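Bench notes, afternoon.
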Amino acid sequence: MTRILLVEDDRLIAENLCAFLRQEGFETAAAATAAEALALPGPWDLALLDVALPDGSGLDVCRALRRGGDVPVIFLTASGDEASVLRGFDAGADDYVPKPFRPRELASRIRSVLRRAGRGGTLTCGPLTADAVRGEILLRGRPLALSALEYRLLLLFLQNRGAVLSRTRLLEEIWDSGGDFVNDNTLTVYIKRLREKIEDDPQRPALLQTVRGLGYRLEDAP
């Protein structure tokens, strides 16, 4: 899986962005300071760095990461002036996103930088493969036609393959994350739709299984 380091001193922004990026298929770790960031174990496929940090600058973190390897870097900052942009690129940034930004636009920029860098991770379960960089899920090598909510739901199962996910957990994870209204009945409909798209026999699901009284589990077909 693609590993992203997020360095952001605003805890609320960090928490919300981490949750969003995980829904998009990126394994994300957050740090609030430069010292915390450099103490976290890598390697990283990409770093999202705020420029202004309590103990220094994201520019210093960028330079330190680049000394340890060729890590793609995107700067997040409230500073939109030309000098800040140039300092970021001089430090080795691959892209620069001023705040406030739209999360989906950021995800698109992340995928673009990862493609240029030739990086990215995949998740697999039986005939299913999720490519977080391309933002698609394949069934036996062919892209599935999925709505945004179907994609997030199936990606959540892939991220937790083999584990039982309760209906409550599923609703909490996908609730209104993309402007979609999701309730218990809607979830049932989406589970049915996913089975119709990934199962050889949707009436006897081998991949997306019901664990009676507990929830659902995605696992390799026997």
